[in-house]
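L-lactate dehydrogenase (Cytochrome), pasting as requested.
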Amino acid sequence: MTSRQPELPRTPRRLPRPAELRPLLRLARPDPDPVRRRLARAHTVGDLREIARRRTPRAVFDYTDGAAEGEVSLTRARAAFAALEFRPSVLRDVSTVDTATTLLGGPSALPFAFAPTGFTRMMHHSGEPAVARVAARLGVPHTLSTMGTTSPEDLALAAPETRRWFQLYLWRDREASAAIVDRAKAAGNEALMLTVDTPVGGARLRDARNGLTIPPALTPRTLLDMARHPHWWLNVLSTEPLEFAALSSWGGTVSELIDTMFDPALTMDDLAWLRSTWNGPLVVKGVQTAADARRVVDAGADAVVVSNHGGRQLDRAPVPLETLPSVVAEVGGDAEVLLDTGITSGADIVAAVALGASGCLVGRAYLYALMAGGERGVDRLGEILTAEIRRTMALLGVSRVADLTPDHVRLRG
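Structure tokens follow.
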């Protein structure tokens, strides 16, 4: 015979009074601004990416989002950031967190710069000027690509207060390369960034499958896409045609452009030539080993960017975050070391700086933001990254960028 459990007393219930419900009601007026409504839902770079995916033609979104071949390089780069372990120090005064630092000898309010990206006006008609104006408001540098869709002169007029850097691809035509370097210098760009990981174009299979050309061609497929994304096509067709920083026009694919225009015979002699003609900071982007970092620094580079081109060139290339410590150990006392590829949050930037980088280059993230909401979208990205950097530093017990050390991060294999 089992004993009966005593009944527990029940919580008394009642109907709530109207006065008690009133403070719980949060009925806001609908925001009539569709861009502001969209961006209010964005709290991470991933949110901005999802908004961009819905609002942009597939070929354009995939050009930004995709990488080479099986996209293993990009996947591994992001996985390295996801797998790392932060190691916080507690009982530290973080009532004030200072995110300011120095990049290439000048001030930066945050430890990153906006990276060079090609064909930026294809993502949104406001293009590079919108991104550069946000960079000025954030207090970070902006890098214009040789394949950008705004000239160095026009960008200087559109964003005169921005710290402006210029990224260079060396053409087969050296006279044309020298001319664009002279234009960049005359337009007030303070640093020159030579990209060295594009002797030939990577196999960007999403672009091939989508039939993407620059600018997008009017085909049965794109005409059908107009019905799905009328706002994007209206903006493209009702604004100035795409023009490039360093060439007047192009009508093929990105890979065809690289293979036609870029010089696969680029050597250390070309770096020495640039060093002799450029008197400002000279950066080499696309370094993937400590040995190559030493070679380019010995040849006169003031900084290197540890990068595999966002995974868009050689698939299964070295993971930049994992390569970073060896590059810092090799040349960190002689040159600045920056990092890009795989960055999707302010916490990623903090991790890279803790491992020895002076700062990071942020590219895809601002293109997602641009597609999501134009210039206001990039402003929203700035707010997100700033908050994430500040919060991560505070939770690590660090109040200054200079106090981040490898003790705060552990790479997990």
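Note for the archive: The mean pLDDT is 91.
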